[in-house]
Amino acid sequence: MLGPMTWDYAPAPESRAIVELRPSYGLFIDGEFIDPLDGTSFKTVNPADEEVLAEVTAAGPRDVDRAVAAARRAQVEVWGPMSGAERAKYLFRVARILQERARELAVLESLDNGKPIRESRDIDVPLAAAYFFYYAGWADKLGYAGFGSDPPPLGVAGQVIPWNFPLLMAAWKLAPALATGNTSVLKPAETTPLSALLLAEICQQADLPPGVVNVITGAGATGEALVTHSGIDKVAFTGSTEVGKGIQRALAGTRKRLTLELGGKGANVVFDDAPLDEAVEGIVNGIFFNQGHVCCAGSRLLVQESIASEVVDRLKRRLATLRLGDPLDKNTDIGAINSAEQLDKINDLAATGEQEGAQRWAPSCTLPGRGFWFPPTVFTGVSPSYRIAREEIFGPVLSVLTFRTPEEAVMKANNVPYGLSAGIWTEKGSRILWMAGQMRAGVVWANTFNRFDPASPFGGYRESGFGREGGRHGLEAYLDV
Length: 481
Ligand code: NAP
Ligand code: MG
Description:
Bound molecules: NADP nicotinamide-adenine-dinucleotide phosphate, magnesium ion
Number of helices: 15
Distance between the termini: 70 Å
Number of domains: 2
Oligomer: single chain
């Protein structure tokens, strides 16, 4: 008799011996790791088992002053006057070292963030290198980018990034800023500072001139001190819509330039003529990649009514095969939730789903006893008015809604305050083009989801922010044009 088959996988952990953690880390300012002037310290933990990984510095206001001053001096004296071809050499060098130290970076990222090693190894780290390679290629060709023959840099950028793709977001920020002749003060997220500090070490290894990249760790207060500092010319922020709005208010009336990459509530729209096996993979990748800690996650599945029950059945069968557990195990699909706070947020929002009347489902899986964990979860019977259909959960939770006509799909897809990403699954090219034109989303994927390429611009509409990162468009955010 053929019953459901399950295999036991032998453990396949990636060794963490390649990572040399220091007990404590200073701030990276003017090319050196230094002690803070008025900062304090905090601990960063491994969310998979709550082990303390290291003590990290929270930069105070005088530390921010010092970092901004170092970035200014480096911009005016060294990096700004340098030819694009020379800047490119440094960026290529950073990109190559990222590749050489890829395993170390991947293990460190999974330790500090909780994401599966399969993803940090195959996605985060290779893409981070790819963004440096890509923008290195632009550094000596800025005159051909469509912004005039010799477009000037803005000056000093204050860059604040979130915890979901710590190294990759640092690369998205630093590579275009540096290629265009700006210098940077970068603030990684409180819960994931370690890969940015390793990137700082890589900048040293690449002989990047001191002050071109400065990394100041800390919590929200450090980020606020940086973005409101009078010595910076540009703020690039990736994070929540709430904090992004606060920054926009704080910068109103100043001469500072601003780009905001904020939250999302992406719709993944599946039509009845879609290739269903591929669509199910795309739905899984859309919302369960990186535990759903993805701004452009396909967190709302809009499925055509006639195939809804079949798609949900297939989806449940597929989810029952996902493996949740040790992020360093090469067979793990779902890692840890990044922090206790984020886990609380996911629990609270998921509870509202049930209270408002949706049906909650998760495959049977054992959650580890320590650390922060949440099983892949699907809500069916969701109305567009439910909080789980409108608010960003930023966790492994999918809300399933149905539609009958393409027009209804568009209306429902656009019926949220966000506008970052969307997916379309159909066999018809004409329908893809029509839908892509109707959806209010910065990125629209067709018959795929969560694909990234440094040559392709990424960014939002409405409450998902403004400005584009990636591609030729990504240069504009750092040029005085
Ligand atoms: P967050 O709370 O807004 O934090 C983002 C960053 O801002 C962190 O480094 C944070 O420091 C810092 N920060 C907090 N308060 C600040 C303030 N008043 N002024 C300046 N900086 C401040 O967001 P998160 O929870 O870390 O990240 C999740 C959010 O990011 C989600 O909404 C997600 O959609 C969004 N996101 C968007 C994109 C995109 O490209 N559109 C990409 C990734 C993530 P702490 O770490 O200490 O809080
Ligand atoms: Mg951590």
